[in-house]
Every structure is written in C-alpha cells, then in structure tokens.
Amino acid sequence: MLKNYFKIAIAVLRRRKFFTFISLFGISFTLAILIVLTAFYDHLVSPAYPDHQRSRSLYLNSIELNHRKKQSHNQGPPSLYFMNKFVATLKTPEKVAISSIFGPTNTYVNNRKLVINVKYTNTAYWEVQEYDFLEGKPYSMQDLDAGSRVAVISRETKENYFGDAPTVVGRYINTNNEQFRVIGVVDNVPKTMLYSYADMYLPYTLSKTEMANKSYNSNFTAILLARSEKDLPAIQSEFAAMIQKVPLDSAQYDEIKGSVDSYVASFTRIFNGGGSSAAAVRRLIVYVSIFVFLFMLLPTINLVNINTSRIMERSSEIGVRKAFGASSGTLAIQFIVENLILTFLGGIIGVLLSWAVLSIVNGSRLIPNAHLGINFTVLGASVLACIVFGLLSGVFPAWRMSRMQVVTALKAN
Amino acid sequence: MLKHLFKLIWNKKKQNFLLMTEIFFSFLIMFAVFTLAVYNYQNYRRPMGFTYDDVWALSYYSKDRSDMSEDSLNLFYETLKQAIGNAPEVAAVSYVSNNSPFSMSENSSTISSGKQNVMTDHYSGDDDYPRVLQPVLLSGRWFGREDDGAKLAPVVINQALKEEFFPGEDAIGKVMKVGDREVRITGVVQNMKDKGDYKSVRPAIYQRTGKGSYAWLSRMLIKVKPGADAGFESRLYKQVAGIMQDANVEIEHLTEKRVVKNSITLIPLIIFGVIAGFLIINVSLGLFGVLWYTISKRKAEIGLRRAMGATGGAITRQVVSETMVLTSISVVTGLIFAVQFPLLNVFFMPKGVYIIAIVLAALFIYALAVLCALYPGRQAANIYPAVALHED
C-alpha cells in the first residue's frame, strides 16, 4: 500500500516539474535555514570542549548591588575577592572553578602585533574544565600560592608566537612587557565560550590589580561543580543563604542580589536582571518559538497554496477512486503521505544545503575555532520540522479534497 | 470595471484567501526589512563628524589608584601624557572616558535645563581632544586653559542636544544641570557617529577631564602622524608598560575597531535580509505557480472572451489587474497593522522612516505581483479561441 503511494507520489512529482521545483525549493531552504540556526544555537548552549560537565554545573557571572534610597544600581561580574571569600567556601559544591573574563594584552613578535587574551584562574578551574593538554600540564597549588610566573597557552597562541616549534614547554613567552614560562599547551576553544575561552591562562595571584581589589565588583566568573545533578538545588539554596549574609558598606549599597544558574540561565539573567532565571529561560523559548513559527508560516502557506492547486488538478483521479469506494479518510491519508514524501525529499536537500552553508561558515572563521556541525540534536529537530511541515501543508488540501463530491470531481475534467 | 474585478475576486474568495494571506505576510515582512534598511541608510548617510584615521586607543587597566594623593596622581598622568606626546611620530594625545569611539561601552544619564530633561550621552576628553578627533565646531569654542578659573565647569554639547534645549537660539554661555552640578556651555559641535557608521543621532555632552579625574580614567587616544608603523607601536607599548608596571596595557586602532563595530550592526541585518529574501523568492514562485495554474483552468472562459473579440492585450490586462486588486486588498490589510508603528511610536524610530518603509514595501509588493502575473497573463493572451472552446 505504502509502496503504491510512493510510486504515485513520484509519478505526480515528475509530471509537473515546475510545481515540484517550487515545493522542494520552499521546503529545502526553510529547513536549511532552520538547521543552520539550530546549529548556531546548539553551538552556543550545549556542552562542548572543554566544558563537558554542564549538566552538573552552576554558573555565576553577575551580581547586583543596589542602594534602594539613592536609586543607584550596579550589576556586573563579581571580584576575585568576592569569589574567594564567599563563593569558594561553599560546602555543597564538589569544586569551584574561578576565572576572570578574558582581557586583551598586546605583544609584538617580529614587528607584528599579537593580541593575547589572558584569563586568570584558580587550580580547581583545570579540574572542572576538561582541557586537552597537547603538552605539559596545568599549574599546581604550589605555583598559585608562590605566584610563579607560569602560563598555560592555547595551541593557536603557540603557533602564532613560536611558529612551528615542536615543543614549547619550558620556553618563555612575553606579553604585556612581562615574561612567563610556558608549562602547558591546550587545544583551542572558540571565543563564544565566555567561561572557557582565552589565549593564555595564568594563576590568579599574578593579577596585581585584582589581588589588591577589595570591592565586590570586578570581572570574575565562577563555575560550581556539583557531585551529582541532584545536588544542584542544594547548591542554589546554599548560595542564596550565603549572599544574604554578605556584609555591605551601607553608605554605598544596602542590597546585594545574585544567584547561581544553569549555563543558559546565567546569560539570560544579564538581560533579565534580578528576576527568576527559570522564567527568563521560558521567555527565551517562547520568543524563539514565535520566531520559528512566523518564519515557517509563509513557506507553509505557500506550500498549502501550491498543494491545493496540485490536488485539484487531480480531481478526475479522485473522482474515479471515490466512485470505486475509497473513503475520504483513505484519500486524505494518501495525500498526506504523498506530501510527507515530498517534504522528506526536500528535507534531504535541506540537510545537504545546510551542510554546505555550515562548511562555509566554518571555513570563513566567522567564529574562530568553532566547528559548527549537523549533530543529532540538530538532525532530530530538522526531522521533526519536516513532519510538522508536511502535516501542516498536507492537511488542509487533503481536507478540501476529501469534501469534494464525486460528481463534481469526475465532471471537472 | 473595478467593481467588476472586485466581484470576480469576491466570487472566488475561498480560492484567493490563501493567496491574499501570503501577500499580506510578505507585505509585513518587507515593511520590517525596509524599516531597518531605511533607518540604517539614513544614519549611514550622515557625516561622521570626526576623523578616526591614524588614531590609536591606548587602554591601561590598572589597580585602583584612588588612595594616591591627587597631586601625585596629576603629576604621574601628566608626565605620562607628555612622554607620549614628545615622540616625533605623535601628533596629539588626549585622555578620554571609556566610551571612546567604536568601543562597546556607553554612558548616559539625564541632563536638565529649566524644566526639560533629556537623556544624554556623556563623554569626557581633555583640552587636546579636538586635535585628536577633530570634531566639527559649529559655534563657540572647545574648553581649554582659559576655563581653569571659571566658576562653572565648561562643557561642549552636540547639535542634537542644542536642538532639544535651545532650538533657534544661541546656546553659548547658557547654563545646564548635570545631576546636581551646574555647567556652562562653551561650544556646539556637529553630531558625531562615534559608535559606528550606522549610529543614530543622540544628544551628547562633552565634559572636561583633567585634575581630579585621573583616578577613574583608563584610556587615551593618540593621533599619530602618517608613517607611524608597528615598530613605533611596539616602542610606544614598551614605554607605557614600563611606566605603568602594574597595568594591563592594550593598543587598538580606531580604523579596525570601526570595522568590528559596523559588523555588529551589519551581520544581523544581513542574516535578516537573507531570510527575508528567501521568503520573498518563495512567495513569488508560489504566486507565479498558482496564477499560472488558475489561468490554465480558465482556458474556456478566456477562449470565450477572445471569441467575442477581446484582444490579447485586453486579456493580459485583465489578469494583471485582477492580481493588482488581490494585492491591494492584502496591502490595505497590512497597512492597518503597519501604520500603528508611526502612530504609536513603537521602537522610537523617526516617523519618516516608517512612512518611507511603508511606501517602499507597498511598491515592492505591487511590482512583485505584476511581475508574477505578467507571464501567465501573456500565456492567457496566446490562447486560441478555437482550441480553448473545443476542449470543453
């Protein structure tokens, strides 16, 4: 039966080539655009090298200080002082990784300028973030405490600074007019990963400005790794209890707010201010869904339009089948199946198209070090979109067709 | 004639409904595209208001120096500026606030004059600021040494802020309030597009930095003479990093920062444009296909008309005008939504932008509809009455 429908579908597709082209064009491009957008989204939010443990991590990138009377308001990343004194001492997390947001420094190699983005971290950072060490190893607690001038650099920095030297551990790198001994080289991280990206990693004790800073605001972020996913709410409530007890200089601020969130929520919070993070994520999902719906609306209406014309063209076939006893339901199912076949055909072309677009994006280094790919989430989403698309554009024409009277249908041509 | 056309469309309202919905949504999408395009193009056409070639931004992120005495701070930073300015490759140097041209940071608050309050961008620069960025002075003068003893702090405002507060009069010498502090206007400059080529006009005020403000400054702009190369840049870098041992120093070129800043505006616009372009191709193909199909269904009717003596041109005209009526219904429906934007002042864009965008979107949709109807119309005109009538 299904094989028969398939044969009919192919025959119909080949009869009106122009209509087939329009349908396939619409479906494949819509899907290609959706897949590309999903790939970007997926790249931004799903766990990836080196931040593999996102499912049991909580993130902190911003706290809010307010003076309610003076209406002053200060929102931004906490300081190293705040992290060490309040966040790192929490009991429930297994490990707390502390690192600064990367900051640019310049270095000049053979009259060529090199921008090296530096990140100051603690030692737990190397245990929470699972970097691939191409050579060497991370700095130890002793290095940190002693303030040793050691650095872990990225593969890209190694290539830019040392050229094709086979191994660079033990050699010195000069930036910001200071010299550091390289003790490790890690694989590159794309710049879109705020918590992980840098060209050079240094023990936080080398940050002279930050060691002297006793205020709560600066440019540090923290990742709180839980022992298991079950511990996440406990960490959040411990943090909430802790932040209420943070002493404040009442002349400046009389209120401090902040919370540790999942990866996506830690960013939506920046736009959402102090509101609940779950609500912000929900709102994001609603906005994205509205966009996707509106985007798919036009191609779908178009497809419905074309399908209606196509099906009406086949009214004599419908008439004959009805006259021989096929029910409206059977016919409707046939047309929906036909339409699904068409949509899947378009889907395959769409996947190929998006693959081409993504390779161009990867090749153009629009996001350096990022490798966007069609992974299973993306593919799953596109298959789902195919089905929705096929049903959406198939149901209406099928319904109209099934209401047609045998006599009209037969008479029409 | 028109009434007759409407009747024809109305009689097939079921068939035409989907087509009209499609044109309606296309109109709305084109309205959005044109609004963004017109808005950005109008901003792009305005002059920059300053020069940025050969200007470098040198940032130093140092530790908190507020515990140093003001005198030693002044001495330290003035010596630093002199040391940089003395290099033969340097034309001028000015300390600036963090929101220097093409940077990501912005700084604004309300300023009042009389009872009026206006949201204003705040910039700071020292007396050498005009030598570095060369803003276009419209009246008055930039602040300088002569303001040292003045009772009220001197400020320079831009054209947009002047229009808000003192339309049609001279602003020089007038007093405004920045927070609780009174300031006196010494000059008016042309609006500067310091946040990229597509920045909109915003009221701005330029305040004088100098003694007392060094503790919170962390950037200077350096105008270099043509021919200053990477070799000089690395020497400059070493010099500054040597003087400020505890600071993180970075040198950036404004020309490069401008490209980055512009791309932040352009990339979303390009993505949006590509998506809209795709949707429109989709719609036009669909429109074309459906019209073509309906024409072939109406062969008998058209054949009859030709037999009655209608010329080929008349047939084409009928098909095209039917499509125009169809489009008009959709566009008018779309207009009801689109005019809400200028009426309710959504997104705070100038009303003119919306109106131009509406006109362009309507023209575009009509042109698209006519183009899609022409070929099927010509096809219809070529129907031979004998063949068409014979078929039925």
UniProtKB/TrEMBL annotation, chain A:
Keyword Ligase among UniProt keywords: no
Example GO molecular function term? Answer: transmembrane transporter activity
Localization per record: Cell membrane
Keyword hit for Transmembrane:
yes
Start and end residues of each MacB-like periplasmic core domain:
20-240
Alphabetically sorted, this entry's keywords are:
Cell membrane, Membrane, Transmembrane, Transmembrane helix
The UniProt entry's GO CC annotations, sorted and at most eight, read: plasma membrane
Q: Which residues form the ABC3 transporter permease C-terminal domain?
A: 290-405
Q: Name one Pfam family in it.
A: MacB_PCD
What is the protein's membrane topology class?
Multi-pass membrane protein
Which stretches are transmembrane? 21-41, 284-304, 340-361, 373-396
Which InterPro entries did the record assign?
Answer: ABC3_permease_C, MacB_PCD, Macrolide_Exporter_MacB
What PANTHER family does this protein's entry cite?
ABC-TYPE MACROLIDE FAMILY EXPORT SYSTEM PERMEASE COMPONENT 2 (PTHR30572:SF18), MEMBRANE COMPONENT OF TRANSPORTER-RELATED (PTHR30572)
Q: What is this protein called?
A: ABC transporter permease
Organism, scientific name: Chitinophaga lutea
Organism ancestry: Bacteria, Pseudomonadati, Bacteroidota, Chitinophagia, Chitinophagales
TrEMBL record, chain B:
Q: Which InterPro entries does the annotation name?
A: ABC3_permease_C (IPR003838), MacB_PCD (IPR025857), Macrolide_Exporter_MacB (IPR050250)
State whether keyword Cell membrane applies: yes
Q: Name one GO molecular function term.
A: transmembrane transporter activity
Q: Name one GO cellular component term.
A: plasma membrane
Entry keyword annotation includes Protein transport? no
* Keywords from the UniProt entry: Cell membrane, Membrane, Transmembrane, Transmembrane helix
| Highest taxon of the lineage | Bacteria
Q: Where, subcellularly, is it found? A: Cell membrane
- State which residue ranges cross the membrane: 21-41, 266-295, 325-348, 354-375
Domain MacB-like periplasmic core span(s) in chain numbering? 47-230
Which segments does the entry list as coiled coil? none
Domain ABC3 transporter permease C-terminal, first and last residues per copy: 274-385
The membrane topology term of the UniProt record is:
Multi-pass membrane protein
Family membership noted in the UniProt record: Belongs to the ABC-4 integral membrane protein family.
Q: What is this protein called?
A: FtsX-like permease family protein
Q: What is the scientific name of the source organism?
A: Chitinophaga lutea
